[in-house]
Write a sequence for this structure.
């Protein structure tokens, strides 16, 4: 999931009877699957939770460009380079769709960026892992985008209109991302023994961090229960993780790769795989800022923003000058 | 920085001769940059043949709280729909 552990401010989910009439009417609209639109009344907690969730999601798209950007200049062929460039450009686009959706809730993009840059808002833990070889581009597309799709497809039905519409656009484009990753893996697995070993190594390193993307079990989380009631979350973290594992295991088998989990086995009774949980201590450590690449990622973001200031200022100055010229010309003509 | 840049609403005419349709919004310092940004953000897969950008501040929207009074008058006028009228089968297609 691109948004992990989003807090809702709730200490428990209210029943319809406990709600004031306005809030009850709101909840009933959500229960009827009506979309909530920007200027309509909404509980303050719904608004702030959505800003956190959409903001975190947008930040993940933007920071998610960095691990792959690392390989654009080193892609093995011109075609792979063009494909990777297109994928990274999509991520920028996805970030922008999501910032737009967040802005309809009354927060400014600058405010969101400032919170990202100062570490007050998070992005997905997955992007704090390094991309060491070209095979990592395959693993990231296949596993990381695969996990993102798992989360984003149900979010197309989320209750907030602008978020839902952004998700529809994103999902349409995201399938390309996963397929190009799997395509890289297929090529490497059909290559030399060394290339196949690189693919296996990439899977080994990205498997557990990908499972972490869904966040820790939220079966007992009040925040999750509240988000489910508001339909800004559609499945629990465990449900999504299970679906992801069930989908991915046969794909790894096709590649002739081994999932790095000795406990992995088919459970006939539940109709899914049993598997090992990732190291959740590591997850919390990465979230807290101590992952292998946290400093590098945030540093690159802040540097790009600061280094681009002169260009943004230039565009603003040009726009002002052009506007002044138009006004002067108009006065002269009168 | 971009906070100084106005918000623009983006409308795109798709391939098939349809109306321009609202697709989203973006920040840009002027109309020219808004068109360029809209090209990159909203038409990466040939989604359009024409782009309109409009400063968001120039759009006047109806208020959600007036939805009732605003749209109520149309509710009671079912005779505006052709299906209101029963035409005997013998008459043929109409």
């Amino acid at each position: 999931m691109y948004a992990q552990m989003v807090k809702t401010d709730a200490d428990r989910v209210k029943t319809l009877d406990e709600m004031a009439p306005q809030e009850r009417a709101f909840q009933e609209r959500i229960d009827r699957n009506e979309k909530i639109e920007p200027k309509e009344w909404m509980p303050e907690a719904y608004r702030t939770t959505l800003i956190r969730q959409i903001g975190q999601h947008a930040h993940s798209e933007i920071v998610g460009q960095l691990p792959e950007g690392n390989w654009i200049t080193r892609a093995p062929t011109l075609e792979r380079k063009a494909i990777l460039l297109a994928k990274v450009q999509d991520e920028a686009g996805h970030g922008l769709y999501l910032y737009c959706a967040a802005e309809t809730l009354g927060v400014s993009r600058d405010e969101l960026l400032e919170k990202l840059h100062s570490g007050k808002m998070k992005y997905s833990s997955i992007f704090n892992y390094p991309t060491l070889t070209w095979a990592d581009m395959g693993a990231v597309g296949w596993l990381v985008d695969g996990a993102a799709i798992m989360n984003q497809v149900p979010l197309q039905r989320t209750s907030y209109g602008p978020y839902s519409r952004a998700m529809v656009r994103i999902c349409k484009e995201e399938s390309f991302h996963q397929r190009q990753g799997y395509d890289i893996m297929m090529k490497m697995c059909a290559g030399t023994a060394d290339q196949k070993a690189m693919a296996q190594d990439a899977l080994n390193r990205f498997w557990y961090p990908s499972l972490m993307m869904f966040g820790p079990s939220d079966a007992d989380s009040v925040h999750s229960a509240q988000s489910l009631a508001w339909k800004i979350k559609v499945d629990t973290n465990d449900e999504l993780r299970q679906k992801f594992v069930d989908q991915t295991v046969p794909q790894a088998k096709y590649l002739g790769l081994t999932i790095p989990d000795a406990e992995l086995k088919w459970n006939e009774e539940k109709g899914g795989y049993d598997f090992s949980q990732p190291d959740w201590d590591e997850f919390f450590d990465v979230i807290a800022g101590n992952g292998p690449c946290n400093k590098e990622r945030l540093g690159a973001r802040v540097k790009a923003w600061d280094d681009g200031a002169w260009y943004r200022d230039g565009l603003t100055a040009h726009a002002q000058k052009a506007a002044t010229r138009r006004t002067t010309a108009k006065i002269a003509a009168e | 920085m971009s906070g100084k840049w106005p918000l623009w609403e983006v409308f795109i005419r798709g391939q098939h001769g349809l109306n321009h349709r609202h697709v989203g919004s973006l920040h840009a310092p002027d109309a020219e940059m808004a068109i360029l940004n809209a090209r990159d953000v909203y038409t990466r897969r040939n989604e359009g043949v024409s782009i309109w950008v409009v400063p968001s501040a120039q759009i006047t929207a109806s208020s959600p709280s007036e939805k009732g009074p605003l749209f109520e008058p149309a509710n009671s006028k079912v005779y505006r729909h052709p299906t209101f009228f029963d035409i005997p089968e013998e008459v043929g297609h109409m």
Observations:
- Chain B has a mean pLDDT of 91.
- Chain B touches chain A at residues 1-5, 7, 24-27, 29-30, 33, 40-42, 44-45, 61, 63-64 (CB under 8 Å).
- The first helix of chain B runs from residue 31 to 42.
- The domain at 2-61 of chain B is CATH 3.10.20.520 (Ubiquitin-like (UB roll)).
